Write the C-alpha cells for this entry.
Amino acid sequence: MERKKVMVSGCYDLLHSGHVAFFEEAARLGDLYVQVGTDENILALKGRPPMFPEDERLYMVRSCRFVHSAALSSDGSGDLDWLAAADRIKPDIFFVNEDGDRPAKRAACSERNVAYVVGCRVPSRGLPVRSSTAIKADLAAPVPIPAPTPVSTDEGLPWRLCLAGGWLDQEWVSKHCAGDVVVLNVRFHPQFKTRSGLATSTQDIITRLWGSARPPPGTTPEGAARLLFGALWKILVSYHRSYSNSF
C-alpha cells in the first residue's frame, strides 16, 4: 500500500527536541515532506533574521531520520510560503501543531482537498516540553551574577592580583607547564600560592603580628594597615642594615 504524503512547514531555527518530536508525530501519518522557511521570508515575518542561515537549517532538518524530504520554500512568502511546493508535491495531509494552526492554512488545504491535521505538543518520553520562543526568551534574559564567595582558607586577607608585573618562580612553574605563564589563583593551593608570590610575604607578617589571617576584633581597616605596613617597614629596614653590615 502506498504511503500517504504528509507536509509540514516552519522556520526550524534553533532546532531542538520539540521539533524532532513534531517530525516524529507527523511521520506516523506517512512520508514526511518538510518545507523550511527562507531567511528572507523569516525576516519579513518576524522583523529579524534567523539565528541560523537557511542552508544550515535545511541541513539539520534533512539530517533527522523522520524526514523523508526537505526543501526551502524559496518560491513563496508569509505563512503560506509552502503553497507552491504543495501544488507540486500534492500531499494528502498538512500537519501543524497547536501554535501553528491558522485559518488561512485551513482554507488553503480545503481548496486543495488536503486533510488538515492539528497535533499536540507532546515531548518524547522523559524529555521536557521545548519551544523556540521559550528558548529565545531564556537566551535573552539577563543572567544573574551570584555574589562572590571566598575560596581561600585564610579569609579576610585579599590576595594580590598582578596585572603588570609580580613575583613568579618561573623555574618551578615551568616544571608543570612549560611556556609563557599568566597566574590566576582561584582556589587555595598552599604550595602554588607560596611559590608564585601571591602576597605571601604580607600574609606571613600578618600571621606573625596577630596569630591568624584576621586582625584583632575592633581593628579598623586604617588601623590594620598602619600596623601591617609599619611592621613591614621595620623588617625592610632591618634587612637593609643586615645587608649593609655584611660588607
Summary: The chain has a mean pLDDT of 78. The longest helix spans residues 221-245.
